[in-house]
Amino acid sequence: PGSAESAADPSANTAEDSQPENQTPNQKGGDGKRSSPGAQSDSEPPQKKSKAPPEKELEPFDPVKIGLSANFSMTSYCETRARRCKVSTTAIDSTLRAVQNSQTDPSKEDGSQGLSMDVTILGSGARFPGLAMLQTQEIVYPVVEDPYLLGSVACTALLSNMYAVGVCEVDNILMKLSVSQYMEDKDRDIVMPLLVKGFRDVARKAKTRITGGETVINPWCMIGGVATAVCTPAEYMVPDQCCVGDVLVLTKPLGTQIAVNAHQWLKNPSMWQKVKMLITEDDVKKAYSRAVSVMRRLNVCAARLMHKYRAHAATSIAGFGLLGHAMALARCQKNEVSFVIHNLPVIAKMAAVAKSKSQMFPLSQGLVSELSGGLLICLPREQAAAFCKEIEAIEGTQAWIIGIVEKGERMARIIDKPRVIEVPFKDKEGELW
Fold first, then answer.
1. Residue 317 and residue 323 in contact, taking contact as beta carbons nearer than 8 Å
2. 177: which of 98, 115, 215, 239 fits an S-S bond (Cβ 3.0–4.6 Å)?
């Protein structure tokens, strides 16, 4: 990725970063026009991709191959991660009370700046009629050992917030990068360029660009950014239209954080001893590969289909877990509705691990953190099955109907004994899914 200095500095851009790859007149640029995400005809059949080779397990990360010491550990550069690094929603509500008003309450008539949303939506007003600016941000701590993978997961997680409101084309990203003060200079000059390269490669895949950012010294290593899109009303969806009778669809399986932790336990004899009767080492490695596959998959296909199938709302599943994000989405609704979740699709074998470590992983309560998870989408009941069928035809991966919308007080809950769906249901030799 060029010199270590330029690659480690997000503001040191090259000419190729200033223009997304494979640009067409219907994307940014050209005549300045772009097609609406929902422009595809409802009667048009799903467009299948040419069959890609099946995904296989990841090769184990070897720090020596990239010039690091054999005992180098990326995850050692932060003390807490996943749910432990998230401030509780109760504490957030208390902190934000001083700035909350009718404009920041999504359930109010003028609540377009709702603090519970995945993005901030700034209406056009008189200055730029017919346009709105949408912004979101995300920060990721080291959860995997491979710095390139970490960078790619961080960018995917950032973009998922935009996809949750139906935005399919992001105009700009500013990168935030924190270099650990405890990392030796020689390690930094290897790790930071790989972090940036992983982040940048996903941005290019999403046909957006990184135009600047900030790099700081901090005890922890972190990477993330701020994404911006300027949209017409047809290009985004305010997530506040759920109705009684709608259903809830999830586009990726749960269990990413469980799989990542279980993989780390392979190098921790005391932790591995407690679970090795439930799961084999090969099962853990496969679950980890599946988790990485999930975390790196862009939610852009789901975002496009949200327009076609007239989704009423959506949110990205991340650090607060399925229930936490479902509750935040329920609070955004104009109608007096609540969500009831019956099904939990989970990466195969991870439900058993969660059950053995129920205090660490309260999976059945919906409180296990996810990283770069799927979209939780509220769809009209008559559209949900077709949505799931088409996303599988296009991506080769499933989506699941996991719950319903009923009359209520803008809350969300998971039933006492939810059905756990193992994903995949059956292992295929040499394939992940």
1. no
2. 215
Q: What are phi and psi of 62, to 5 degrees?
A: -115, 105
Cβ atoms of residues 288 and 260 within 8 Å: yes
Please answer whether residues 303 and 394 qualify as being in contact, where contact means their C-beta atoms are separated by less than 8 angstroms.
no
Cβ-based neighbours of 92, under 8 Å, separated by 6 or more:
none
Does 82 have pLDDT greater than 50?
no
Tell me how far apart the alpha carbons of residues 159 and 226 are, in angstroms, rounded to a whole number.
9
Active site residues: 85
Rounded CA-CA distance 168/175 in Å is 19
For residue 412, the SS3 value is strand
pTM for the full predicted model = 0.86
Please give the structure tokens belonging to residue 319: 């650090």
Tokens of 327: 């509750």
* Average pLDDT of the residues in 135-144: 94
pLDDT in tens, 306-354: 999 999 999 999 999 999 999 999 999 999 999 999 999 999 999 999 9
Q: How many residues does the chain have?
A: 433
DSSP string for residues in 15-78: GGGGS-TT--TTSSSTTS----TT-S-TTSPP-PPPPPPPP-PPPPP-GGGGT--TT--GGGG-
Sheet bearing 412-423, strands edge to edge? 313-316, 375-379, 247-250, 400-407, 337-347, 412-423
Q: Give dist(CA 382, CA 386) in Å, integer.
A: 8
Output the CA–CA distances (angstroms, integers) from residue 300 to 5, 136, 201, 337, in the order listed: 32, 16, 16, 27
Q: Are strands 210-218 and 172-180 parallel, antiparallel or unpaired?
A: parallel
Residue 22 has pLDDT above 60, yes or no: no
Which residue is it, tokens 């109608």? 335
**Measured distance CA(140)–CA(330) in Å, rounded:** 25
Q: Which of 107-116, 181-190, 275-284 has the lowest mean pLDDT?
A: 107-116
Q: Residues 353-387, buried b or exposed e (16+ Cβ, 10 A)?
A: bbeebeeebebbebebbbbbbbbbbbbbeebbeeb
Distance in angstroms (rounded) separating the CA atoms of residues 209 and 199: 11
Q: Which residue has the tokens 């941005």?
A: 203
* pLDDT (average), residues 142-163: 97
List the beta bridge partners of residue 405.
339
